[in-house]
Amino acid sequence: MATATFRFYQELNDFLPPERRRREFTSPCARAATTKHMIEALGVPHTEVELILVNGESVGFDRQLADGDRVAVYPRFEALDVTPLLRVREYPLRQTRFVADAHLGGLAHLLRMLGFDTLYDNHFHDDDMVAIAGKEGRILLSRDRELLKRRSVTHGCYLHAQKPEQQLREIVERLDLARSARPFTLCLHCNAPLRPVDKASVLDRLPPRVREHYAHFSACDGCGRVYWEGSHWRNMRRVLDGVLKRNPD
Protein backbone atom coordinates (compact mmCIF):
# COMPACT_ATOMS: atom_id res chain seq x y z
CA MET A 1 0.00 0.00 0.00
CA ALA A 2 1.31 3.44 -0.95
CA THR A 3 1.73 6.23 1.59
CA ALA A 4 1.64 9.91 0.61
CA THR A 5 2.27 13.15 2.49
CA PHE A 6 -0.47 15.79 2.37
CA ARG A 7 -0.66 19.51 3.20
CA PHE A 8 -3.90 21.49 2.90
CA TYR A 9 -3.93 25.29 2.80
CA GLN A 10 -6.14 28.12 4.05
CA GLU A 11 -9.82 27.34 4.64
CA LEU A 12 -9.48 23.75 3.44
CA ASN A 13 -8.12 23.03 6.91
CA ASP A 14 -11.60 23.57 8.32
CA PHE A 15 -12.60 20.19 6.87
CA LEU A 16 -9.77 18.33 8.63
CA PRO A 17 -9.53 17.06 12.21
CA PRO A 18 -7.53 19.45 14.44
CA GLU A 19 -4.40 17.30 14.51
CA ARG A 20 -4.05 17.52 10.71
CA ARG A 21 -4.69 21.23 10.23
CA ARG A 22 -2.00 23.56 8.83
CA ARG A 23 0.71 20.90 8.86
CA GLU A 24 2.02 18.03 6.80
CA PHE A 25 0.74 14.55 7.58
CA THR A 26 1.06 11.15 6.00
CA SER A 27 -1.80 8.88 5.03
CA PRO A 28 -2.03 5.43 3.46
CA CYS A 29 -3.63 5.45 0.00
CA ALA A 30 -5.88 2.82 -1.50
CA ARG A 31 -4.53 0.94 -4.50
CA ALA A 32 -4.63 3.13 -7.63
CA ALA A 33 -6.10 6.01 -5.59
CA THR A 34 -6.36 9.33 -7.44
CA THR A 35 -5.87 12.79 -5.97
CA LYS A 36 -9.65 13.31 -5.96
CA HIS A 37 -10.25 10.03 -4.14
CA MET A 38 -7.73 10.81 -1.39
CA ILE A 39 -8.67 14.48 -0.98
CA GLU A 40 -12.30 13.51 -0.40
CA ALA A 41 -11.39 10.49 1.73
CA LEU A 42 -9.57 12.96 4.00
CA GLY A 43 -12.77 15.03 4.27
CA VAL A 44 -12.44 17.85 1.72
CA PRO A 45 -15.09 18.15 -1.05
CA HIS A 46 -13.43 18.45 -4.46
CA THR A 47 -15.58 21.49 -5.25
CA GLU A 48 -13.54 23.46 -2.69
CA VAL A 49 -10.22 22.74 -4.44
CA GLU A 50 -8.67 24.95 -7.11
CA LEU A 51 -5.08 23.71 -7.39
CA ILE A 52 -3.23 20.48 -6.59
CA LEU A 53 0.55 20.10 -6.63
CA VAL A 54 2.09 16.63 -6.49
CA ASN A 55 5.84 16.76 -5.92
CA GLY A 56 5.69 20.41 -7.01
CA GLU A 57 3.90 19.66 -10.29
CA SER A 58 0.38 20.89 -10.98
CA VAL A 59 -1.99 17.97 -11.63
CA GLY A 60 -5.68 17.23 -12.09
CA PHE A 61 -8.09 15.16 -10.05
CA ASP A 62 -7.29 11.99 -12.02
CA ARG A 63 -3.59 11.81 -11.08
CA GLN A 64 -2.85 8.44 -9.45
CA LEU A 65 -0.77 8.65 -6.30
CA ALA A 66 2.41 6.68 -5.77
CA ASP A 67 4.32 5.81 -2.64
CA GLY A 68 6.20 8.81 -1.28
CA ASP A 69 4.24 11.45 -3.22
CA ARG A 70 3.94 14.87 -1.59
CA VAL A 71 0.57 16.48 -2.21
CA ALA A 72 -0.25 20.18 -1.63
CA VAL A 73 -3.91 21.17 -1.95
CA TYR A 74 -5.09 24.78 -2.36
CA PRO A 75 -8.51 26.49 -2.30
CA ARG A 76 -9.68 29.33 -4.56
CA PHE A 77 -7.11 32.07 -4.77
CA GLU A 78 -8.21 35.58 -3.85
CA ALA A 79 -4.94 37.50 -3.77
CA LEU A 80 -2.36 35.27 -5.51
CA ASP A 81 -1.90 35.13 -9.27
CA VAL A 82 -1.78 31.44 -10.17
CA THR A 83 -2.73 31.79 -13.83
CA PRO A 84 0.57 30.24 -15.04
CA LEU A 85 -0.37 27.04 -13.15
CA LEU A 86 -2.78 24.37 -14.25
CA ARG A 87 -5.97 24.43 -12.23
CA VAL A 88 -8.14 21.37 -11.81
CA ARG A 89 -10.98 22.68 -14.05
CA GLU A 90 -11.02 23.74 -17.67
CA TYR A 91 -13.19 26.78 -16.98
CA PRO A 92 -13.44 29.23 -14.07
CA LEU A 93 -14.94 28.18 -10.77
CA ARG A 94 -16.52 31.56 -10.18
CA GLN A 95 -19.88 31.82 -11.82
CA THR A 96 -22.65 34.01 -10.47
CA ARG A 97 -25.63 31.67 -10.87
CA PHE A 98 -26.54 29.42 -7.98
CA VAL A 99 -28.75 26.55 -6.92
CA ALA A 100 -29.22 26.29 -3.16
CA ASP A 101 -30.10 23.13 -1.30
CA ALA A 102 -33.30 22.74 0.68
CA HIS A 103 -31.75 23.96 3.94
CA LEU A 104 -30.55 27.30 2.55
CA GLY A 105 -33.79 29.14 1.85
CA GLY A 106 -32.70 32.20 3.83
CA LEU A 107 -29.44 32.47 1.91
CA ALA A 108 -31.23 32.03 -1.43
CA HIS A 109 -33.54 34.92 -0.50
CA LEU A 110 -30.58 37.17 0.33
CA LEU A 111 -28.66 36.25 -2.83
CA ARG A 112 -31.68 37.18 -4.93
CA MET A 113 -31.87 40.42 -2.98
CA LEU A 114 -28.29 41.11 -4.11
CA GLY A 115 -29.28 40.39 -7.72
CA PHE A 116 -27.76 36.91 -8.13
CA ASP A 117 -29.82 34.35 -10.03
CA THR A 118 -30.48 31.69 -7.36
CA LEU A 119 -32.74 28.67 -7.78
CA TYR A 120 -34.28 27.29 -4.62
CA ASP A 121 -37.12 24.95 -3.76
CA ASN A 122 -37.43 23.21 -0.40
CA HIS A 123 -38.73 20.18 -2.28
CA PHE A 124 -35.51 19.80 -4.31
CA HIS A 125 -33.90 16.37 -3.91
CA ASP A 126 -30.12 15.97 -4.10
CA ASP A 127 -30.31 14.47 -7.59
CA ASP A 128 -32.42 17.44 -8.76
CA MET A 129 -29.88 19.97 -7.55
CA VAL A 130 -26.92 18.11 -9.04
CA ALA A 131 -28.70 17.87 -12.41
CA ILE A 132 -29.65 21.57 -12.38
CA ALA A 133 -26.12 22.65 -11.44
CA GLY A 134 -24.62 20.64 -14.28
CA LYS A 135 -27.19 21.50 -16.94
CA GLU A 136 -27.38 25.23 -16.21
CA GLY A 137 -23.80 25.91 -15.10
CA ARG A 138 -24.76 26.89 -11.55
CA ILE A 139 -22.73 26.76 -8.35
CA LEU A 140 -24.29 24.29 -5.93
CA LEU A 141 -24.52 25.76 -2.43
CA SER A 142 -24.77 23.29 0.44
CA ARG A 143 -23.75 22.39 3.97
CA ASP A 144 -23.75 18.71 2.97
CA ARG A 145 -20.18 17.60 2.32
CA GLU A 146 -21.21 14.28 0.81
CA LEU A 147 -23.41 16.04 -1.74
CA LEU A 148 -20.49 18.22 -2.84
CA LYS A 149 -18.24 15.17 -3.14
CA ARG A 150 -20.29 13.75 -6.01
CA ARG A 151 -18.17 13.38 -9.13
CA SER A 152 -20.78 15.12 -11.30
CA VAL A 153 -20.64 18.30 -9.18
CA THR A 154 -17.89 20.48 -10.66
CA HIS A 155 -18.84 23.87 -9.19
CA GLY A 156 -19.96 24.07 -5.59
CA CYS A 157 -19.43 25.85 -2.29
CA TYR A 158 -19.65 24.45 1.20
CA LEU A 159 -21.17 26.92 3.67
CA HIS A 160 -19.38 27.03 7.01
CA ALA A 161 -21.71 29.60 8.60
CA GLN A 162 -25.14 28.53 9.85
CA LYS A 163 -27.15 31.78 9.81
CA PRO A 164 -28.31 33.26 6.47
CA GLU A 165 -26.74 36.70 6.88
CA GLN A 166 -23.40 35.17 7.87
CA GLN A 167 -23.66 32.74 4.96
CA LEU A 168 -24.23 35.65 2.58
CA ARG A 169 -21.16 37.43 3.89
CA GLU A 170 -19.15 34.22 3.49
CA ILE A 171 -20.23 33.77 -0.14
CA VAL A 172 -19.68 37.43 -1.06
CA GLU A 173 -16.16 37.38 0.37
CA ARG A 174 -15.13 33.96 -0.96
CA LEU A 175 -16.37 34.55 -4.51
CA ASP A 176 -15.65 38.29 -4.62
CA LEU A 177 -19.24 39.15 -5.49
CA ALA A 178 -19.48 42.70 -4.16
CA ARG A 179 -18.53 44.39 -7.43
CA SER A 180 -21.07 42.44 -9.48
CA ALA A 181 -24.01 42.80 -7.09
CA ARG A 182 -27.16 44.45 -8.49
CA PRO A 183 -29.42 44.80 -5.44
CA PHE A 184 -33.20 44.67 -5.85
CA THR A 185 -33.21 43.65 -9.50
CA LEU A 186 -34.69 40.16 -8.99
CA CYS A 187 -37.96 39.00 -7.50
CA LEU A 188 -37.34 37.61 -4.02
CA HIS A 189 -40.14 35.10 -4.47
CA CYS A 190 -39.59 33.60 -7.93
CA ASN A 191 -36.11 34.80 -9.01
CA ALA A 192 -37.40 36.55 -12.17
CA PRO A 193 -36.11 40.01 -13.19
CA LEU A 194 -37.92 43.08 -11.89
CA ARG A 195 -38.81 46.07 -14.08
CA PRO A 196 -39.81 49.62 -13.16
CA VAL A 197 -43.52 50.31 -13.62
CA ASP A 198 -45.79 53.34 -13.50
CA LYS A 199 -47.75 53.65 -10.33
CA ALA A 200 -51.01 53.85 -12.28
CA SER A 201 -50.44 50.40 -13.79
CA VAL A 202 -50.25 48.68 -10.38
CA LEU A 203 -52.64 50.85 -8.39
CA ASP A 204 -55.16 48.06 -7.94
CA ARG A 205 -52.49 45.85 -6.34
CA LEU A 206 -51.37 48.36 -3.70
CA PRO A 207 -52.54 48.72 -0.10
CA PRO A 208 -54.22 52.11 0.56
CA ARG A 209 -51.33 53.44 2.68
CA VAL A 210 -48.79 52.51 0.01
CA ARG A 211 -50.83 54.30 -2.69
CA GLU A 212 -50.69 57.42 -0.56
CA HIS A 213 -47.04 57.46 0.48
CA TYR A 214 -44.96 55.88 -2.31
CA ALA A 215 -44.31 56.83 -5.92
CA HIS A 216 -41.71 54.40 -7.30
CA PHE A 217 -42.47 50.75 -7.97
CA SER A 218 -41.04 47.62 -9.58
CA ALA A 219 -42.98 44.58 -10.69
CA CYS A 220 -42.28 40.95 -11.47
CA ASP A 221 -43.77 39.59 -14.66
CA GLY A 222 -43.28 36.07 -13.36
CA CYS A 223 -45.46 36.06 -10.26
CA GLY A 224 -47.06 39.52 -10.42
CA ARG A 225 -45.61 40.83 -7.17
CA VAL A 226 -45.07 44.57 -6.77
CA TYR A 227 -42.19 46.10 -4.78
CA TRP A 228 -41.65 49.55 -3.32
CA GLU A 229 -39.08 51.21 -1.05
CA GLY A 230 -40.89 50.88 2.26
CA SER A 231 -39.60 50.03 5.73
CA HIS A 232 -38.94 46.41 4.75
CA TRP A 233 -36.85 47.60 1.80
CA ARG A 234 -34.84 49.91 4.08
CA ASN A 235 -34.18 47.07 6.53
CA MET A 236 -32.99 44.83 3.70
CA ARG A 237 -30.81 47.63 2.34
CA ARG A 238 -29.07 47.95 5.73
CA VAL A 239 -28.33 44.22 5.69
CA LEU A 240 -26.87 44.39 2.19
CA ASP A 241 -24.84 47.52 2.88
CA GLY A 242 -23.30 45.74 5.87
CA VAL A 243 -22.37 42.72 3.76
CA LEU A 244 -21.05 44.85 0.88
CA LYS A 245 -19.21 47.12 3.34
CA ARG A 246 -20.48 50.35 1.92
CA ASN A 247 -22.40 53.31 3.29
CA PRO A 248 -26.15 53.58 2.64
CA ASP A 249 -27.25 56.32 0.26
Structure description:
The protein has 249 residues and is an alpha/beta fold. It folds into three domains: 73 residues, Ubiquitin-like (UB roll); 83 residues; 51 residues, no CATH class. 27% of the residues lie in helices and 19% in strands. Strands 2-1-5-3-4 form a five-stranded mixed beta sheet, covered by helices on one side. Strands 7-6-8-9 form a four-stranded parallel beta sheet, with helices on both faces. A hairpin with a 2-residue loop joins β3 and β4. α2 packs across α5.
Present the secondary structure layout.
Layout: E1 2-8, E2 25-29, H1 35-41, E3 51-54, E4 57-59, E5 70-74, E6 98-100, H2 105-114, E7 118-119, H3 126-136, E8 139-142, H4 145-148, E9 156-158, H5 164-174, E10 194-197, H6 199-202, H7 208-213, E11 217-220, E12 226-228, H8 231-244
Parallel strand pairs: 1-5, 6-7, 6-8, 8-9
Antiparallel strand pairs: 1-2, 3-4, 3-5, 10-11, 11-12
Helix pairs in contact: 2-5
